[in-house]
Amino acid sequence: MRLMLFLLCGFAGAILLAKLLNLDKRPKWILGGTFVIACGFAALGAYEGCADKWNTTKIGRHGNCSYHRRLKTHLNIYGWCGLAASLLVIVATPTDLRKK
Are 71 and 51 in contact, with CB atoms under 8 Å apart? Predict the structure, then answer.
């Protein structure tokens, strides 16, 4: 889940930054900004918890979710908003910009 959030937000961030900044003049800024956007959404938008949504403060310890159907990554409000905004940017962007 966290990897999907990272990839989609990174791809949408690259599209937005390429549109805002001139792609030919500032490729390093676009790549750096894309990485920062993707890392930020992946870190803020997902959290680890038990698969049945049981909350525990011992995430990361051995056997912490053994009675709660294993450890799983969940999305919070930032993650869902990041996914929705990323999909909107990807779908709304003309295909000629995506090919650059």
Answer: yes
pTM over 0.85: no
Are 51 and 70 within 8 A, CB to CB?
Answer: yes
Q: What is the DSSP letter of 69?
A: T
- Please name which of 20, 40, 17, 39 lies closest in space to residue 30, comparing C-alpha atoms: 17
The count of other CB atoms within 10 Å of the CB of residue 94 is: 8
Q: How far is CA 35 from the centre of its chain?
A: 10
User: How do residues 37-81 score in pLDDT, each as one tens digit?
Assistant: 888 888 888 877 777 766 666 665 566 676 666 777 778 888 888
CA distance 29 to 34: 8
Cα–Cα dist 33/19, whole Å: 13
Could you tell me which residues come within 8 angstroms of residue 44 by beta carbon, excluding any fewer than 6 positions away?
76, 78, 79
Query: Look-up: residue for tokens 């000629």?
Result: 96
